[in-house]
């Protein structure tokens, strides 16, 4: 960063810092949570939207009724998806540093378009990678305010590199993000011996391709019972109709 940009960012971010942070790579799969979200033994759908973005199709239609995706597997269901999760840290009464006790809200930040499979993605973030630095900087206010913040890599990137990249495929953004949300909730519980909880309140944010992805993930969050406090999407390609393509080509 140049000195002027650094000074501007410092003035914007430093006053909002209330917590320290710990970042770690996060990996999960739809398969990790299929038994939890869909009760195969009872033939009941615990999470109706799970069939749409995460179902393997094996048993999803038996008792799931006409739910979206029932009986048909979601592409990437068996992928190990990756991303970056950032936990807030605070001093406890015994002077140890750890995740704050009690309920914490979540935030999800979706990155912009990226052509490389491993470089400049959230889980491989290093200072100086300008392609992902802008997303990380935008996320800092929510990070330092004490939210559990998740930055997905998207399907086809990072650990899911063997799968097709998910450019503007609504369901693929959901498939590559929702398992990370469930995994983050699990990690908060286990790492704090159940003294902390990532509660079902979230803001979803994104710009460019990430703007489209943010709206897709906000929909799956809401359908899964998570209260979406806000969905902030900027400069995204939202109107993906043939008329849009034709109008664009004629200008």
Tell me the layout of helices and strands:
Layout: H1 3-13, E1 20-28, H2 30-37, E2 38-39, E3 44-45, H3 50-53, E4 81-91, E5 97-98, E6 102-110, H4 130-144, E7 148-152, H5 170-191, E8 196-207, H6 209-223, E9 227-234, H7 242-250
Parallel strand pairs: 6-7, 6-8, 8-9
Antiparallel strand pairs: 1-4, 2-3, 4-5, 4-7
Can you describe what's shown?
The chain has 251 residues and is α/β, with parallel strands linked by helices. It is 33% helix and 24% strand. It has helices at residues 3-13, 30-37, 50-53, 130-144, 170-191, 209-223, 242-250; strands at 20-28, 38-39, 44-45, 81-91, 97-98, 102-110, 148-152, 196-207, 227-234. The strands form 2 sheets. Strands 1, 4, 5, 6, 7, 8 and 9 form a 7-stranded mixed β-sheet that branches. It has a two-stranded antiparallel sheet with strand order 2-3. α6 links the parallel β8 (196-207) and β9. It starts with a helix and ends with a helix. The model is unreliable at 59-71 and 242-251 (pLDDT under 50).
Give a brief outline of the structure.
The protein is an alpha/beta fold. The protein is 33% helix and 24% strand.
């Amino acid at each position: 960063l140049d000195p002027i940009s650094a000074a501007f960012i410092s003035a914007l971010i430093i006053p909002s810092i209330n917590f320290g942070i710990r970042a770690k790579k996060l990996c999960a799969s739809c398969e990790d949570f299929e038994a939890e979200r869909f009760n195969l033994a009872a033939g009941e759908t615990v999470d109706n939207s799970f069939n749409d973005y995460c179902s393997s199709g094996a048993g999803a239609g038996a008792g799931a009724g006409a739910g979206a995706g029932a009986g048909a597997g979601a592409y990437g269901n068996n992928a190990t998806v990756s991303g970056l999760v950032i936990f807030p840290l605070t001093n406890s009464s015994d002077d140890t540093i750890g995740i704050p006790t009690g309920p914490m809200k979540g935030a999800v930040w979706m990155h912009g378009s990226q052509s490389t499979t491993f470089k400049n993605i959230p889980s491989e973030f290093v200072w100086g990678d300008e392609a992902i630095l802008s997303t990380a900087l935008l996320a800092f206010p929510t990070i330092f305010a004490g939210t559990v913040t998740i930055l997905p890599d998207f399907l086809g990137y990072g650990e899911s590199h063997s799968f097709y990249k998910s450019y503007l495929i609504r369901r693929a953004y959901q498939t590559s993000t929702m398992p990370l949300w469930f995994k983050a909730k699990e990690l908060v519980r286990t790492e704090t011996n159940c003294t902390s909880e990532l509660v079902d309140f979230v803001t979803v944010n994104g710009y460019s391709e990430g703007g489209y992805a943010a709206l897709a993930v906000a929909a799956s969050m809401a359908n899964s019972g998570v209260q979406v406090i806000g969905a902030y999407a900027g400069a995204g390609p939202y109107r993906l109709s043939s008329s849009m393509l034709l109008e664009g080509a004629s200008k």
